[in-house]
Amino acid sequence: MDKINRCSWCGDDPLYVDYHDKEWGTPVYDDPTLFEFLILETFQAGLSWITVLRKRENFRRAFDNFDYKKIAQYEEAKIQELLLDSGIIRNKLKVRATVSNAQAFMKVQEEFGSFSKYIWGFTGGKPIVNSFEKLSQVPANTPLSDKISKDLKKRGFKFVGTTVVYAHMQATGMVNDHITSCFRYKELLELSPDL
After folding, report:
1. Active-site annotation holder among 19, 23, 29, 187
2. Is the dihedral of CA 157, 163, 166, 170 positive or negative?
């Protein structure tokens, strides 16, 4: 294995390392990717992220490439088909929540112009840069994730508890929670010209 310093949570699983090095914490401003992470994070609730990551391509295939416009139209027959798909996590409540979340996502787009404008509005459009030195310092949720979770629920989203929301914020770069000794911490700082 190379000698690069990275956050220890990704271990040495190549899939996890690749995700850590290329995606986690990178600011995401496009609605389709924000929706993809929202869906994956809701399926992750109560499970490990690597479980979801290993099934990501199956989710992509099963859920029409995470096309929220198509997912919002899913009828009962499609939901039953998904519940028989062993390639994904077959949790009935989460599958149904994906459909209602796609509908709620589109309502947010109508109101704000994009989901990105809405969600990034909570951080003023810029990543929150933390400076944690150890993994043990990284929180599972924050007062801001509490606030966003409450607002999403008010708008009809499901499986968006504060921990799920914080994981989404970390994944999409709304917060930079790479530990300070991780090579990605500095790389991401350079991606944020205003910081």
Report:
1. 19
2. negative
Give residue 135's pLDDT: 92
Q: Which tokens in the block code for residue 111?
A: 């109101």
Give the whole-angstrom CA distance, residue 86 versus residue 12.
26
| Beta bridge partner(s), residue 129 | 176
Phi, psi of 157 (to 5 degrees): -75, 150
The pLDDT value recorded for residue 192 is 58
Instruction: Write down the catalytic residue from 16, 23, 29, 49.
Output: 49
> Is residue 49 among the annotated active site residues?
yes
Return all residues near 67 (Cβ < 8 A) that are at least 6 apart: 32
The number of residues making up the chain comes to 195
Please give the structure tokens belonging to residue 90: 């077959």
What are phi and psi for residue 128, nearest 5 degrees? -85, 120
pLDDT range class, residue 2, cuts 50, 70, 90: low
Mark 8-45 as b/e (b = at least 16 C-beta within 10 Å): eebeeeeebbebbbeebbbbbeebebbbbbbbbbbbbb
Which residues does residue 175 pair with via DSSP β-bridges, in sequence order?
A: 128
Indicate which residue of 24, 36, 41, 74 is catalytic: 41
pTM of this structure:
0.93
Active site includes 133? no
Active-site residue flag, 41: yes
